[in-house]
């Protein structure tokens, strides 16, 4: 299932600011990885985390039909797996299902719900830890990656063909990135520490108070009207409405 592009967009429509943003993100990523040895560790951690989270925001925009009318072009813009752990197609289907459900936050109908059906379970505890801002930023990346991998491995025997379609291209992209990092002399652990971990942490910060359970569906999505520099990082997705 694909997000529909707006019918008001003319043929050949291209959102050039978003294309420029994509070039900035990928150019910045190449520059940071290539010249990593000349960059102080703290700066690399902050810049690498920003670029990685920015890329996640870009992926979110491509899922919603930006920056062109072509789903293929949009996919190509967002697909490169610089955060390593989440295949683009898995994120795509999960996010489309999240927007398609009429029961936002329902743990049975919303795949991106932070609510769980049973207390005392491992899943319940993992979400409870992330209810605090510190827990979400520090432990959230480990939790969300582990949960995704467990869910994907559970999907393998049920949907083997779709699983391979999702993961084989993704792992090929990851392999290409690892080869590039090796050529640049940036070891995988340092990349995880300075790019993937802080980038995932910043992405989780955006969704910390994004949804809440409420009898009125119109009150389940939060809108943060002023985001400062984070509005740039999240591409104004703090103005969240569903």
Task: List the main descriptive attributes of the protein structure presented here.
242 residues; mainly alpha; disordered N terminus
How would you characterize this protein structure?
The protein has about 240 residues and is mostly helical. Helices cover about 60% and strands about 0% of the residues. The protein contains ten helices and no strands. The chain has helices at about 15-35, 40-65, 70-80, 90-100, 120-130, 135-140, 140-155, 160-185, 190-205, 230-235. The longest helix has 25 residues, at about 160-185. It starts with 15 loop residues before the first helix and ends in a 9-residue tail after the last helix. Residues about 1-5 have low confidence and may be disordered.
Number of strands: 0
Instruction: Report the mean per-residue pLDDT as an integer.
Output: 84
Summarize the amount of helix as a percent range.
55-70%
Biggest sheet details: none
The quaternary state of the protein chains shown equals single chain
Instruction: Give me the number of helical elements.
Output: 10
Bin the strand percentage: under 5%
Unreliable segments of 5+ consecutive residues: 1-7
Structural class: mainly alpha
| N-to-C CA distance | 18 Å
Overall, the morphology is globular
User: If you compute it from the alpha carbons, what radius of gyration comes out, rounded to the nearest whole angstrom?
Assistant: 18 Å
> In sequence order, what are the helices and strands, one letter per element?
HHHHHHHHHH
